[in-house]
Structures are given as structure tokens and as C-alpha cells.
Amino acid sequence: MIWEDTCKNVDKTDPKSLQYIFQDNIVNPETKVFIDKVGMGKTFKPGEEGFFALLGSVNGKGTAYLLLQHSGIIGKKTIKQIVTYKAEDGAYQMYLEFEEWKQATAPGPCTSTNTPNDD
After folding, report:
1. What percent of the chain is helix, strand and coil (3-state, nearest 5)?
2. Which one of 12, 67, 87, 119 is separated from 2 by 20 to 30 angstroms, measured CA to CA?
3. Per-residue pLDDT for the chain (119 aa), expressed as one digit of tens each?
4. Are 50 and 40 in contact (CB under 8 A)?
């Protein structure tokens, strides 16, 4: 993976320091349509309308795939937010910010005192 090589051999940093991906000059028509539909110049967080549409675009899928397939190198991460905007020259852009994945804790044992009826 180029990121791992760059970190180790050029920057002398930990590959797990990856915090975001910036996508400049998006030309994929599907992604551009998604961005137009959800809105330009907006920030989308998980659960908000538009977040999963962008994540399901060709550009969003590529980033999600990277996070899943290379978690051993970059650490377990989730996408914290996606920001859409246009450059001064009109190029479509997306910024996808990551955060460390936090495993949800399982609920405790059932503490209900209700018992089934033996009728």
C-alpha cells in the first residue's frame, strides 16, 4: 500500500495517523449527480440525510473499501463526516474525515423480573 510505504520511508510516521481523504476534481457522473441532489457546500454525518447516498457513490465506496480492506495497516476507522463543495474552477470535491472505530458495548443481562405464564 502506497500510504504505508510513504509513512514508513518518507514521513517516518505511523500509517494509522490517516485522518481524512480529500477527493479533488471528481469527474464520475454518478457521484456528481449524488452531490447535486444532496447539496453542495454541506457537511453530512452518519444518520443524516445524504450521508449514505454519498457513501454509496463510486467515490464514497472506494473510501469505504479502503478503510475495510486495510484496517490492519491504518487501524479500524469509520467515516465521521463527508463535506461536499466546489473549487473556484468549478471542480466537484469531497472531504471524508475519519475517526477511530469504537466497538459498541453489549447490553447487560436481562434484569426483568417478569416470568412467562405457565397457564
Report:
1. 35, 25, 40
2. 87
3. 777 888 878 878 888 888 999 999 999 999 999 999 999 999 999 999 899 999 999 999 999 999 999 999 899 999 999 999 999 999 999 999 999 988 766 665 554 454 555 54
4. no
The reported pTM is 0.79
Contact 7, 13 (CB under 8 A): yes
Of the candidates 19, 32, 17, the one whose C-alpha atom is nearest the C-alpha of residue 86 is: 32
CA angle 111, 114, 116 (to 5 degrees): 125
